[in-house]
Amino acid sequence: MIRLIGVLAQVDVDPNSDGMPGADLIQKLLNWSQMLALWGSLGALLIGAAMYGLAREGGSYGGASRGKALAMGGVVGAILAGVAPTAVNMLFEAAS
Known about the structure:
Layout: H1 2-8, H2 23-57, H3 61-95
């Protein structure tokens, strides 16, 4: 058992996409997905803010609450879309 652990402990990984078929396509798809997430977050933020303002002024506090939740969802979505690549890289570096 100890010999097996010694063999497994010597694994080294250096992730890179050199020579990987389709690496450019995968990177482009990831870039597009992040852009779609940011566009969706912006849309949610703007629509939620409009719903909140109009519903609040119209006296519909239930609609204002939904608008506020939608706007906050857009904010959180934008934060997560922006932080995701950095978080993945930081977690990988911390684990290696």
